Amino acid sequence: MDMAQALALASGALVAINLASILVAGKRLKPAGAPPPRIDGKPPVSIVIPVRGIERFSDETLARAFRLDWPRYELLFCVAHGNDPIVALIEKTAAAHPHVEARILVGDDRIGANPKLNNCVKGWQAARHAWVILADSNVSMPTDYIQHLMADWRGDSGLVCSTPLGSRPEGFWAEVECMFLNTQQARWQYAGEALGLGFAQGKSMLWAKPMLDANGGIHALNAEIAEDAASTKLVNRIGLKVHLVSSPFEQPLGRRTGREIWSRQCRWSRLRRVTFPHFFAPEILLGVLPPLLLALAAAALAGTSLPLAALLVLAGIYLPEAALARAKGWRLSLLSLPALIVRDFLLPAIWLRAWLGGTIDWRGNTMTIGTAACELKEAAAGP
Predict the structure, then answer these.
(1) Which of residues 221, 255, 289 is at a domain's end?
(2) Residue 172 to residues 62, 169, 319, 329, 337: CA-CA distances in angstroms?
(3) I want to staple 316 with a disulfide (CB 3.0 to 4.6 A). Which of 15, 261, 371, 374 is the partner?
(4) What pLDDT, in 10s, does the model give residues 315-368?
(5) By residue range, what is the domain housing residue 91?
(6) Which UniProt key words apply to this protein (predicted)?
(7) What would the 3-class secondary structure string for 9-65 be?
(8) 218 lies in a domain?
(9) DSSP secondary-structure letter at 111?
(10) What's this model's pTM, rounded to 2 decimal places?
(11) Are residues 336 and 357 in the same domain?
């Protein structure tokens, strides 16, 4: 076999792996808005929601949390400082829904470097029910939110999660974030879970409280800088699995800037690199660039058409992604193709950045992520 053939085969293998992941994820996933499976029994549930500041869709996401179709649930809003402007909005929304149990818990418990986990501690301790959901404040909860999570709890489950689906982007960079969240990150997470490699996602996490309390409680999630990484390792350590909901929940994006996308993706990549380095390392092979460069090199050596080689790779990577988004009712627009291309040109740079030191910003906290540990410093901006 000559070099041109070897390069062409390597390119084809990467395209085939990409297609296989889409097929596996597509089989596992249900379309957006699909009804959850029916379940017997609906136990009371506590929902712990860490909040900080008012965001673009706070009015909507708060209102949705109070309109869930479940016989009994409580909402525990956790805020570090009582003067946070989100407090007044929560109180206003709660007053409009007096039939829903809701409490605002104020305080800053420093159990580690993760500001979100620090904020959740008081909510976990105050939860009255045996089933607890840790939910980010920007999740757009459908009315059957709890039922989706409970329905996907199985006999071997230690945790049920949902990846965020980007929706309602405003501007090109928000379209790019949709392509990161949906047909890349969600797709690979569902493909991995279908193959027995479930990874936790911190956006929505359903816990059996007695089980976690018996294994160190919420403080055990401080074993890693990212609570979802610590959750994955804890669940696997006790012989259980992380499962994902069959139809993930949306996160409305609004407007994004290129700088925000870069910062957020670098942060997540560096957290993955620190917590799961053996899974993170192969991420350099994701996206269109590796198979495209291999195919172009093969065409150049063989003296065949470079444009044709490029077109075949682009079609082999992007058409299946578009088909998955269309089949599942995910974001797809005229800007999707250029957003996909920009995403894939950013991927190698983000991967390389993840191996370097330095600081990142996490909701107003400056964090230094090294090779094995993290340091948290308060940002000057305050609460």
Answers:
(1) 255
(2) 27, 8, 20, 20, 11
(3) 15
(4) 999 999 999 999 999 999 999 999 999 999 999 999 999 998 666 565 555 566
(5) 31-255
(6) Glycosyltransferase, Membrane, Transferase, Transmembrane, Transmembrane helix
(7) HHHHHHHHHHHHHHHHHHHHCCCCCCCCCCCCCCCCEEEEEECCCCCCCHHHHHHHH
(8) yes
(9) S
(10) 0.90
(11) yes
The structure tokens listed for 94 are 């709660």
Residue 172 DSSP label: H
Question: Is residue 126 domain-shared with residue 182, that is, in the same domain?
Answer: yes
Q: Which two tokens stand for residue 302?
A: 């063989």
Q: Is 76 left (phi over 0), alpha (psi -120 to 50) or beta?
A: beta
Task: Tell me, yes or no, whether 47 and 195 share the same domain.
Answer: yes
Q: Is residue 175 part of a domain?
A: yes
Q: Are 200 and 63 members of one domain?
A: yes
Beta-strand runs (E) in the chain: 45-50, 73-79, 101-106, 131-135, 157-162, 164-170, 204-208, 241-244, 249-255, 359-362, 365-369, 374-378
Encode pLDDT of 270-285 as tens digits: 989 999 999 999 999 9
Q: Is 190 exposed, middle or buried (0-12, 13-18, 19+ CB in 10 A)?
A: buried
Q: What is the CA radius of gyration of the chain?
A: 22
The three-state secondary structure class of 108 is: coil
